[in-house]
């Protein structure tokens, strides 16, 4: 395990990137792209790193893996925690191995914090202090998010300005880092705010009209339940150690856990998975627009995937 202070440089000088919101079609297009350019795919998904969390993450099938090698999936058991630092460590190793074989590393996925690490590099900072986090979360429940924002404003006004209004998790992390190190997280991350021109890299995001993307999400959610998502979650919970905090909070899994706990019925669970996935897609697209490195590829129903593929290959 590397020291918590180790920083990871960006990887876009060595790799291509294809991102997009959930259900945007990036996995299928990424396979075609990899075959055209002699590439290997690296998953850019924070939940696909967990073994046997397959249905809810739309992991590649055996046939897809036979077509193109895939990396950064099935790295740890669901009972384990997995951080951005863990991901960056594994990503750097995988990219170096792929390049040594003369292949092209292609990151495909939509987890924003993983994407930012690939584009800008990453400073892991101190390890998580779960007792401190629980204490702050209790304060948020009692006093509200605005009180949390004011607390962060006193400690790190730049971080308070940058973090989205309701992103409680990132605000707590900012407080945690300042408390543990004595240095505001915004000061530590200055070197990771540097951007390169989209002409200097090959980073792309698939962008869909909102109504069409929502329809695709609804179809995917229904397919996940038909494929046995409830049974998958039950089998994970029944294992020794169960599921980690991170694994349990994944969209699609946390709602099914509530259903299995008897908190909500199955129809409500489906509705919440779809609603939360649509909300996640909006947050993903907000992140994509904030990265100046990314070029957008406009998609729509009935469009020829070959046209999108040609745009990827022209860069």
UniProtKB/TrEMBL annotation:
Bilayer-crossing regions = none
| Catalytic activity line of the entry | adenosine(37) in tRNA + dimethylallyl diphosphate = N(6)-dimethylallyladenosine(37) in tRNA + diphosphate
Binding-site residues for substrate, renumbered to this chain: 22-27
Required co-factor(s) are:
Mg(2+)
The record ties this protein, via Gene3D superfamilies, to: 1.10.20.140, P-loop containing nucleotide triphosphate hydrolases
Annotated site residues (Interaction with substrate tRNA) in this chain: 111, 133
Q: Any idea which UniProt keywords this protein has?
A: ATP-binding, Magnesium, Nucleotide-binding, Transferase, tRNA processing
Documented EC number(s): 2.5.1.75
Function in brief: Catalyzes the transfer of a dimethylallyl group onto the adenine at position 37 in tRNAs that read codons beginning with uridine, leading to the formation of N6-(dimethylallyl)adenosine (i(6)A).
Quaternary arrangement and interactors, per the entry?
Monomer.
The record's family statement is:
Belongs to the IPP transferase family.
- Name listed for the protein in its UniProt record: tRNA dimethylallyltransferase
Q: Which organism is it from?
A: Rubripirellula amarantea
Name of the encoding gene: miaA
């Amino acid at each position: 395990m590397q020291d918590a202070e180790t920083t990871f440089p960006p990887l876009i000088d060595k790799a291509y990137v294809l991102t997009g919101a959930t259900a945007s079609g990036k996995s299928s297009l990424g396979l075609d792209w990899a075959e055209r350019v002699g590439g290997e795919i690296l998953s850019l998904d924070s939940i696909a790193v967990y073994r046997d969390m397959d249905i809810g993450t739309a992991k590649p099938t055996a046939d897809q893996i036979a077509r193109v090698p895939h990396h950064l999936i099935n790295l740890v058991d669901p009972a384990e925690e997995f951080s951005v630092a863990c991901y960056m460590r594994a990503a750097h190793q995988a990219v170096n191995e792929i390049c040594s074989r003369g292949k092209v590393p292609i990151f495909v996925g939509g987890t924003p914090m993983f994407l930012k690490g690939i584009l800008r590099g990453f400073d892991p900072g101190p390890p998580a202090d779960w007792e401190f986090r629980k204490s702050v979360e209790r304060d948020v429940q009692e006093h509200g998010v605005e009180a949390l924002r004011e607390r962060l404003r006193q400690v790190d006004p730049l971080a308070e300005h940058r973090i989205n209004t309701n992103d409680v998790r990132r605000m707590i992390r900012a407080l945690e880092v300042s408390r543990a190190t004595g240095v505001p997280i915004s000061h530590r991350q200055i070197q990771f705010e540097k951007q390169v021109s989209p002409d200097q890299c090959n980073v792309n995001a698939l962008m869909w009209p909102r109504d069409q993307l929502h329809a695709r999400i609804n179809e995917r959610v229904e397919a996940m339940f038909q494929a046995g998502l409830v049974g998958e979650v039950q089998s994970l919970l029944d294992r020794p150690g169960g599921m980690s905090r991170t694994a349990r909070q994944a969209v699609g899994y946390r709602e099914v856990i509530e259903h299995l706990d008897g908190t909500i019925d199955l129809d409500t669970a489906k509705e919440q998975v779809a609603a939360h996935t649509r909300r996640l897609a909006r947050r993903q697209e907000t992140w994509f627009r904030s990265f100046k490195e990314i070029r957008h590829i406009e998609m729509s129903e009935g469009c020829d995937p070959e046209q999108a593929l040609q745009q990827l290959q022209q860069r």
